[in-house]
Amino acid sequence: MKALGYHNRPRKLANQCAIMARLWPSFDYSVHEDGCVSWMGKVRGFQQFYKIAVIWSPVDKDAPCVMLLDPKLKPREGGSFEDIPHLWFNVKDPENSALCLFDPEQNQWDDTMAIAETTVFWAARWLLYYEYWHLTGEWFGGGVGHESIAKAKQSNVH
Fold first, then answer.
1. Number of helices (H), then strands (E), in the chain
2. N- to C-terminal Cα distance for the chain?
3. How far is CA 80 from CA 39, 64, 107, 111, 125, in A?
């Protein structure tokens, strides 16, 4: 079967919103002054639900960003925020670091993809591994590069 051309085109905001409303109807949607859009809603890790925000700029076509709103990110007991694996680490406000859901250098997400079909599911999977990490201290979710800022700093010392 010949692929239809529209599957290779960037998705417009209206299309992203329609798919999100169909797959994640409980998510709230808002447009910000800078042109960014956000969806907020709950997804389930393994043990509990988490409220997340998915933020995307349809103008810049950058990959969506996912923030954990409630409960907030927290390190393991006795650890630091730098120990949390696979974050886009916010040095000024670590509790508000974004979840690292894919490798941008490998083009694992682009604007032809539906955020509701990729990013939200990836966030739920990340939260599952985050819960396991809290229990065991190991990150079972895979990924590229250093697992955490703390491990990156350790490898630079040696």
1. 3, 6
2. 54
3. 29, 26, 30, 34, 22
CA distance 38 to 32: 8
pLDDT in tens, the chain (158 residues): 344 445 578 888 899 999 999 999 999 999 998 889 999 999 999 899 999 999 999 888 788 999 999 999 999 999 999 999 999 989 999 999 999 998 877 778 888 999 999 999 999 999 999 999 999 999 988 876 656 676 666 666 55
Work out whether the CA dihedral 62, 32, 126, 14 comes out positive or negative: negative
Q: Is 103 helix (H, G, I), strand (E, B) or coil?
A: coil
Q: Taking the CB of residue 158, how many other CB atoms lie within 10 A of it?
A: 4
Pairing of strands 65-70, 87-88: unpaired
pTM attached to this predicted model: 0.86
Contact of 63 with 107, CB cutoff 8 Å: no
Q: What are phi and psi of 40, to 5 degrees?
A: -125, 135
